[in-house]
Design a protein that fits this description.
162 residues, alpha/beta, Rossmann fold
């Protein structure tokens, strides 16, 4: 596996714009809390380090509900981007496929509907260990990556549409 021994969250801070003046929402699924809390902490820490003006957290019961939580924040009108954080671990049924497909489609639709970045910070691992490895473990923290993506997308939007 290409990611077996690699920290996927390594980044060059000089390539990330300042988040000064930017406002973010973070929607966190309560399901698989051990993982989603670690992802949230990574995103929060990074946004704070890059001087985000405001960070608002809301929780939803599970990954399926992430798009609705994001929509509530977008309709409130006080965020430049929303990061959706969840974790769905592959099981023995098709439930995994339905939840992941619905969540990713819902997030895609919100990006286009609101013309604001809505970031897919959802882990879809085969095992709990794979999730742990990507939530602050040996492969880094996907919450960090989601925060960087949010900052870069807000900066891109501001650069193009200003």
């Amino acid at each position: 596996m290409a990611t077996e021994l690699k920290n996927l969250s390594a980044f060059n801070a000089e390539q990330v714009p300042s988040a000064s003046g930017m406002k973010f929402g973070i929607v966190v699924a309560e399901w698989n809390t051990e993982i989603t809390d670690a992802l949230y902490q990574g995103a929060l820490k990074l946004l704070t380090e890059f001087n985000a003006e405001k960070i608002e957290k809301v929780t939803v019961p599970g990954t399926f509900e992430l798009p609705m939580g994001a929509q509530f924040l977008l309709e409130k009108g006080q965020v430049d981007a929303v990061i959706c954080i969840g974790c769905v671990i592959q099981g023995e049924t098709k439930h995994f496929d339905f939840i992941c497909n619905a969540c990713s489609q819902g997030i895609t639709d919100l990006n286009l509907k609101y013309n604001k970045p809505v970031i897919f910070g959802v882990l879809t691992p085969n095992t709990l260990q794979q999730a742990i490895d990507r939530a602050g473990g040996k492969h880094g923290n996907k919450g960090d990556e989601a925060a960087i993506t949010a900052i870069k997308m807000v900066a891109l939007k501001n650069a193009i549409l200003s």
